[in-house]
Amino acid sequence: MAFTPLLNHDDLQRWRACSRRFWLHRRGGPAAAPSQPSATGAARTLRDADETAEAAVVHGPGLQAALRASFPHADLIAAPGTPAEWAAAVQQTLDCLDSDRVAPEGWAILGACLTSDDRAQVRIDVLTCGEQGLRLFKVRYATVGDEVDVDAVALWVHAAARCGLRVQSAGLLLVDTGFIYPGHGCYAGLFREVDLAPVLGSRPVAAWLSAMRTCDRGPEPPATPGAQCTQSGGCEFASHCQAGEPASSLPAPDPQASLDIVGRELAAELRQEGHADLRSVALQRLGNLRHRRAARAIQQGGPVLEPAVAALMQALPYPRHHLRFDTIGFAVPLWAGTRPYQVLPFQWTCGVQSAAGQWARQGFLADADGGDPRRAFALTLLQALGSAGPVLAYNAGFERSRLRELAQQFDDLASALDAVQARIVDLFQLARAHYYHPVMAGSWSFKSISRAVAPDVPVARLEDVQASSAQAAFAHSLQRSLDGAVRQQLRAALQAHGQRETEVLRRIAALFEAADAAATAGRG
Questions:
Q1: Which stretches make up the DUF2779 domain (predicted)?
Q2: N or C end: fewer C-beta atoms under 10 angstroms in the chain?
Q3: Nearest to 120 by CA among 96, 75, 86
């Protein structure tokens, strides 16, 4: 008799989002991405970092040490892949639970595997002993959980109960931001427990599993396109669903001319007036000068640069320092005295331009063996910037905040670091007040203006190292077991990344300084 594959948390997550996605995935449907087991808790390894407004947060090289600190006597069950490995992992879990030994304090099973009699298959992050039964936890290297976490824990509790196990409590292990890492791998206290008992009752897992099996046996279910198609990286079957939708006779909206560029409220008014995008809106209708500049650039099909910015740039003395910082915030702190998610600088890059037009690059990049890099970061930066000349940055509140934090950390450097803050010129503010290019699509972010002033300079990704960001590349470079040649490749890519960003700053400054000449040429 042939059996369909068991139902796991990934199946549940897909089914909760879209029954068609679940159905197609179970059949290896069209354009299906290779299935990978969920990397949660003890099984999780370092992933590419996600960027936030100020810094990327990555798990950090201390990931496994952090969990081991909370459960020093844990039994680890390797993540199974094949059915035979699953059977062995389930047996290993049961053997650990059936052992006659007295579980010592700090004992747990990390990655406990269970298969229930209603064909659910789960791998539990942490399964440990309580006074009245087992305690079950999902590990999140984050400060809060989400609905997907609650669903996962509910499925784990259901499977454990069907296997005859007595579950005393179930919850999440979340990162405590009040934790200060003392060093030497002492991560005890990093996690805080959150009890999910009050919300688990709202998850009818048995009914869900029954509905999933019915869906799995039936024909392809219908689906209505919505937010679920783009959440969590997007659906791998989006093209399949779009192929079944009737073709629209309306042209696709142009994001570079979107009414939303001028704000949602005004955009709603303009739509009511019959406008589809900014190309038909009279400039006099827009009271905000920045919005009017954007609409003018869109309507003329090219950038608008106000000549008044040239005088502001020409007044800046030399040498000019074009400065970019890269920072990281580890969920599991790496350096003694730091907290989870603390924004820590690890690289600065500076391009220095002389009055004669000569261009020199300088920089600092922390290494795996240097410990907390902040003091070396500050000292080398002060030496490179000297005491004279403007410091050009983009969205400079970020650099100012980091300098202020360094000044608070190192009293002996505070006055010099404060003096650097006073020299900063924010090109972001000049851009918002004087410049717009249609390719910016309503955004003045560094990446957006880079597309406008330096389209040939790739700043979004690090080439050749398969890293989604500078933070991901740096975190990877800190792995102790990393091959030396790979580490050097990552460091070279990070340094090149910083140099590209300072090149963009140089081009912004040059463009703005020549604005009056460009305006004169245009009138001629």
A1: 321-445
A2: N
A3: 86
Cα–Cα distances in Å, from 452 out to 288, 365, 402? 22, 28, 27
Query: What's the CA gap between 508 and 502, in Å, rounded?
Result: 10
Distance CA 67, CA 199 (A): 25
Residues facing 364 on adjacent strands = 348
- The separation between the first and the last C-alpha atoms of the chain, rounded to the nearest angstrom, is 84
Could you read off the pLDDT of 81-109 as tens digits, one per residue?
999 999 999 999 999 998 777 778 889 99
Count other Cβ atoms within 10 Å, centred on residue 288: 12
Which amino acid is present at 237?
A: F
pLDDT score for 43 = 31
418 contacts 407 by C-beta, under 8 angstroms: yes
**What 3-state DSSP class applies to 118?**
coil
Mean pLDDT value of segment 161-183: 95
Residue 236 CB contacts under 8 Å (≥ 6 apart), including other chains:
21, 25, 31, 32, 33
Q: 463-467: long-range contacts (C-beta < 8 A, 24 or more apart)?
A: 463/493, 464/489, 464/493, 465/489, 465/490, 465/493, 467/48, 467/493
The 3-state secondary structure of 387-420 reads CCCCEEECCCHHHHHHHHHHHHHCHHHHHHHHHH
Instruction: Judge contact between 462 and 470, C-beta under 8 A.
Output: yes
Give the list of residues 6+ apart from residue 174 with CB closer than 8 angstroms, or none: 140, 142, 143, 144, 145, 191, 192, 194
pTM of the predicted structure, to 2 decimals: 0.83
CB count, 10 Å around CB of 64? 16
- Distance in angstroms (rounded) separating the CA atoms of residues 472 and 56: 8
